Amino acid sequence: MSTTWTDAVVVARHDATPRIAVFDLARADGGELWEYEPGAHIDVQPGATAPVRQYSLCGPPGLRKQYRIAVLAEPASRGGSRAMHALAEGDALRIAAPRNRFGLAPALRHRLFAGGIGITPLLSMAQALDATGGDYDLHYCARSRAEAAFAADLASHPRVTLHFDDGGPAGRLDLARDLGAPTSGVAVYVCGPGGFMDHVLGQATAMGWPESALHKERFSAAPASAGADQGQPGGFTVRLASTGAEYPVPEDQSVLDVLLANGVEAASSCGQGICGECIVRVLGGEPDHRDDVLTADERAEGLFTPCSSRSNSPILELEL
Ligand code: FES
């Protein structure tokens, strides 16, 4: 499945904090953009040679005339956030149709936990739940009020609690208090930097929340844990079920790299096992899952991310 792109233009830009710029984007031809559900993200390329990056849509989901994204300037940027921050009103870029692996689950109540720029998909969820009368609360954590985009809009919202690291211990997130014990019919959503995600998800699991109730979206892959299984030593072979073609996958290349190098049409976006765009089904062999996007049920069903995961068996057969 190939990515569908459209030419777009920056119709408004403002700096929400010294490091976070908010962009409103519209189609260059003035037409409507794609519909999307809260939690969706888009690929954005802010120039012909600029890298493609993924950003969550953070405006109200019903708006099809323009999309809103917020971009954190990353000090260690490989060019993505730097190119975005260089954009001004009127500048051209291209954007892809939204994808969503972080949608609202059917639940009686939604508990949203955002860390820093992780507010973006959860803001879209909160706006959708406000519009439909859904039951939810949102805990938004940031280093300080000055570094929290959208904090001024959210400060007086009755369902939102702001937590600032510089606000004293009482104001910090306390999951025993702010999440509590597992409750049936409740879905928990977590988005933010890796340390924040690990903290919230680890505590929630320790408090007994089942994996099926925990929904997460990372902005970058979690580091491999020390001592993690290194998969099939010396690489392995990937076989395509449709043609029987076999390709060796050396230790220093991903399955996706090998497929693309051999002209196999394979979808991809993040290349880090976090977006779900490349998911395929395994028909034979034992996958070594190294993604941060598939649920335990999806892995048990045989789904696999060729961009990040590998094989524990000498041959892995894919439904391609
Ligand atoms: S390309 Fe994003 S999970 Fe594989």
Account of the protein in words:
With 320 residues, the chain is of the alpha/beta class. The protein has 3 domains: 5-96, Elongation Factor Tu (Ef-tu), domain 3 (Beta Barrel); 109-218, Nucleotide-binding domain of ferredoxin-NADP reductase (FNR) module (Rossmann fold, 3-Layer(aba) Sandwich); 236-318, Beta-grasp domain (Ubiquitin-like (UB roll), Roll). Helices cover 17% and strands 29% of the residues. It has 7 helices and 18 strands. It has helices at residues 80-85, 119-132, 151-154, 175-178, 194-206, 255-261, 296-300, and strands spanning 5-15, 20-27, 41-45, 53-56, 67-72, 92-96, 109-115, 136-142, 160-164, 186-192, 214-218, 236-240, 246-249, 280-284, 287-288, 303-304, 310-311, 315-318. A 6-stranded antiparallel β-sheet has the order 4-3-6-1-2-5. The longest helix has 14 residues, at 119-132. The radius of gyration is 20 Å and the shape is globular. The mean pLDDT is 92. The chain binds FE2/S2 (inorganic) cluster (FES). FE2/S2 (inorganic) cluster is lined by residues 268-271, 273-278, 291, 293, 305, 307.
Form type: globular
Give the tally of β-strands.
18
CATH topology label of the largest domain: Rossmann fold
Give the strand line-up of the largest sheet: 4-3-6-1-2-5
Order of helices and strands: EEEEEHEEHEHEHEHEEEHEEHEEE
Tell me the number of helical segments per DSSP (H or I, 4 or more residues long): 7
Binned strand content: 25-35%
CATH architecture of the largest domain: 3-Layer(aba) Sandwich
Rg, rounded, reads 20 Å
Which class best fits the helix and strand makeup?
A: alpha/beta
Fraction of helical residues: 10-25%
Point out poorly predicted stretches: none
Main beta sheet strand tally, sense and closure: 6 strands, antiparallel
